[in-house]
Amino acid sequence: MVAYQGNWFGTALGVANLHQKLIAMENITLPHSETQIVVDLLVKRLGRCTIFAFGYSNNTTSVSNLLSTQVNSGATRHHFDHLVFSSKASPNGASNIANALAEQTGKTITVSVLLHKVD
């Protein structure tokens, strides 16, 4: 797979030089347990579906106390970007799934869902 990096629209590069800007996409390594939570929720809500993960990020927050010299490690937050093809789609389905996941996990796992209905 390849991805285009940069914006060639409106520049002098044009389509002829577009091939020079194509780069290989990086592999995404997903954490198993968090990914399973997301997939289980999607399957529970949508039934049989096809899920493409096209983005993932995580960050760890640390909490420190002014009265203590120790730093307490906080929670790691995971965010997934998914494209989902399903025969079951409803208005606000993607946002309902995202909200349900955030509530279920205390906002430690979030997801952006692009939901496409297929026949």
Please tag this protein with its features:
2 helices; 119 residues; single chain; globular; disordered N terminus; two-stranded antiparallel ribbon; 39% strand; 3-stranded mixed β-sheet; alpha+beta
Helix and strand content put the structural class at: alpha+beta
> Mean of residue pLDDT?
77
Query: Helical content, roughly?
Result: 10-25%
Largest sheet descriptor: 3 strands, mixed
Q: What is the radius of gyration computed over CA atoms, rounded to a whole number of angstroms?
A: 19 Å
**How many beta-strand segments?**
5
Uncertain segments are 1-21
Report the principal-axis shape: globular
H-E order = EEHEEHE
The N- and C-terminal alpha carbons lie at a distance of 26 Å
Strand content: 35-45%
With strands numbered from the N-terminus, the spatial order across the biggest sheet is 3-4-5
Instruction: Report the total helices.
Output: 2
Structure description:
It is built from 2 helices and 5 strands, in the order E-E-H-E-E-H-E. The N terminus is likely disordered.
Strand and helix map with partners:
Blueprint: E1 2-4, E2 22-24, H1 32-46, E3 49-64, E4 71-86, H2 93-104, E5 109-117
Parallel strand pairs: 4-5
Antiparallel strand pairs: 1-2, 3-4
